[in-house]
Amino acid sequence: MNSLRPYTPVFKFVATFGTIYIVLSLIYYFYLQQDYSTSNYPDPVTSQVSYQTQQLLMVLGYDAQISNVPNHPSVYMFLNKDIVYRVIEGCNAISVMILFVAFVLAFAKAWKKTTLFIFLGIVFIYIVNLLRLVALAVIKYKYPQYDHISHDVLFPAVIYGSVILLWLLWIKKPKQI
User: Fold this and answer.
1) Helix, strand, or coil here: 84?
2) pLDDT surpassing 60 at residue 174
3) What φ, ψ does residue 71 adopt, rounded to 5°?
């Protein structure tokens, strides 16, 4: 058992990260179980992300519209009257934010700095996600041949790459943050 003693910090990190991740994921799961059919359908965050994506596309000069998908908790995104994609719960980046927060909290030292970094990190992830959805809509509309690679490879790399960069910043420079 003494041979495992040097790895105690690793075990502590994994246990802390796992516990925080499970607790936050359960909270999010119960949030999603609410009935949002009368307002903010499919759920308030996904609804807001859809609306903000539409607004950004309109700023770029596109005729962007959103519409709730009948009998399915998602939102259609239209560009110039063509459906380019459905925004589902997984598109709101909350799961990615939960992963980010669990990691940062597992490495937490000073709570004030940790709280500030988490807040700024969540805002950064949210913005990156909005830009990802805008770019995906444009690619799907103008360059449909790149639909698969952009949705399944490029944009997951962008969103998860952003989180990894934040993590590296957190563990490499915690005193400057």
Assistant:
1) strand
2) no
3) 60, 20
Interval 101-130 mean pLDDT: 94
The pTM (predicted TM-score) of the whole model is 0.91
Rounded distance between C-alpha atoms, residue 29 and residue 122, angstroms: 19
Question: Residue 57 and residue 60: Cα distance in Å, rounded?
Answer: 5
User: Over the stretch 45-94, which tens digit does the pLDDT of each residue have?
Assistant: 999 999 999 999 999 999 999 999 888 889 999 999 999 999 999 999 99
User: Token match 């960069």: residue?
Assistant: 165
Note the helical H segments in the chain: 8-32, 44-59, 94-106, 111-142, 147-149, 155-172
The answer to whether 104 and 118 are in contact (CB under 8 A) is: yes
Q: Which residues pair with 64 in a beta bridge?
A: 79
Q: Which residues contact 117 (CB under 8 A, 6 or more apart)?
A: 104, 170, 177
The mean pLDDT value of the chain amounts to 92
Q: In degrees to the nearest 10, what's the CA dihedral of 28, 99, 118, 9?
A: 120
CB 139 within 8 A of CB 79: no
